[in-house]
Amino acid sequence: MTDRAHATLSGAELTIKLLARHGVDTLFALSGNGVLAFFDAALDADIRVIDTRHESAAVQAAGGRALCTRKPEVCIVTEGPGLCNALGGIAGLHHDGVPVIVITNCEADDLFGTSCFQEVPQVEAAAAISKWSVKVHDIRQLPDVIARAFREAAAGIPGPVVITLPNHVVHGHVDAALLTRRTPALSKATSATQPSAEFIAQTLALLQKAHKPVILAGAGAFWDGADEPLLRFAEHTGIPVGTCSLGRGLVPDQHPCCFGDGTPGGAPPALMEADTVLVLGERIDHLFAFGQRWAPGATIVQVCAEPVAIARSIDTAASTSADSRAVMAALLSALGPATWPRTDWLARLKAGQAERLAELHAVTPETAAGIHPGQVAKVLQEVAGRDRVTIFDGANGMIWAREYLPVHNPEHFIHMGRLGMIGMGLPYALGARTVHPDLPVILVVGDGSLGFHFMEFETAIRHQLPLVVVVLNDSAWGIEQHFQRRIFARTTGTALSHVRYDQLAQSLGGFGAYVTKEEELAGVLRTALATGVPAIVNVRTENVEHRTVAAAGKRLLQQHREHQPR
């Protein structure tokens, strides 16, 4: 080995070593000429590279891993078309607030702007759908840029960061001593942003005088790790908790203080009577019907890391951009020995949720059209139990399945997010599997959604990442068909071939089974879970309209009629 090899590092080597110093041991990628140096450097750093079949899938797989680790994860994609392919995944993570660092390359500065190979204005393209998009022009900037990327990705409302490294930075060399240079803190500040004493006193007073208070805990509470103080506060006060978006499971669905899903589409009808709502770590956006599904005149208290999102769609009586865990810890400390009156409000919400679920469970039995998607979820719950990671992808079938499976742990429950980007399920499952090698990882997905990134099943086989894919196969874009029938009384462009995904799985070297009878399902699922290889259980299901889909269809029909010429 030469003295130069001892004394210097290439930009790619320095980047990989910096990632390792930040705790990265797995990254997701898709090869390309400009990023091969990172792949080679990862071998020496003992960082596992999971190479996918599409760049968007690489980004989403890193997102799936981040949702299980609650910290930023990393993917690497090549320049130009590679970064363009990744933009969809980046946009989805940005809307959901998932911290992923995307590293890409481009031509050297002296060539950029000359219509050089694969030239795309990728810094600008990524800027609109990420928290920070930056090009590094000098290799000596790498330690500071990488450190800032981890801070930016995790701070406030988390999200994706995109770093573009020109080829003269990737392949240039610098003194290896640069690696030992001190850089700022790796992620969030060591002390969380604290709420003011005034906010805590005001919030506590509002909750104490309320007759029907609720806490709705969401994504910010998840990333801030508010689980423990939230649970203790709910147990002490008896205030009902609903969990939302990435916060589902922060308080387990079956806990006495939790009524499950707190969003309008999944909450018990009685939630509309709430007179005081503490929104913990969430924007009040379309996920909450912009606050229009709570009692008129309800008092709203909002905790959200994004100050501009506070009171954006509804007035708040109190608000803060403080850390959600710090807020709950401060509320706990301020409680003192006082006892809170117990009312029938919590019992009413719990009863309403039980009634709603009982209504759902009284599903239509299987017909010639297939098995009811809710029945598939019921059987899956019986077979897989609660110690599992479940990912939901798709629309109509996913809505049914998600209703039936209780959530016990927010790191074990992943679903399509705010942007409504279907197709993310299989990549997310890959990422989850790298974190949970000892738990069943189960993807429940519609047949249309699975088609987006189906070849990531081959990625799972190649990297020995066993997972079970349960396909709710109704040969249709289900929700769109229901909307078409309601609005136009006919359908087109929404029918799909009945794809035998099970046979495709077998052809790739995995396990595949086709199920048309409900009595066959439990046995097949047990076999799939026990195979130790990636598996697909392809279930012929009935295209049944869920009540939330029906309600949305009625609203769309009304809008359609309102815009017709008179």
Question: Can you offer a commentary on this structure?
Answer:
The protein has 566 residues and is of the alpha/beta class. It contains 22 helices and 20 strands. The protein has a six-stranded parallel sheet with strand order 3-2-4-5-7-6, with helices on both faces. The protein has a six-stranded parallel sheet with strand order 11-10-9-12-13-14, with helices on both faces. It has a six-stranded parallel sheet with strand order 16-15-17-18-20-19, sandwiched between helices. Helix 14 (373-384) crosses helix 15.
- Superfamily at the CATH H level of the largest domain? Thiamin diphosphate (ThDP)-binding fold, Pyr/PP domains
The CATH class of the largest domain: Alpha Beta
Structural class: alpha/beta
What average pLDDT do the residues reach?
A: 89
Q: Count of helices? A: 22
Which runs of at least 5 residues are low in confidence (pLDDT < 50)? 1-5, 186-190
Strand order of the largest sheet: 3-2-4-5-7-6
Integer tally of domains = 3
Short description:
By secondary structure, the protein is of the alpha/beta class. The chain has 22 helices and 20 strands. Helix 4 (55-69) crosses helix 16 and helix 9 crosses helix 12.
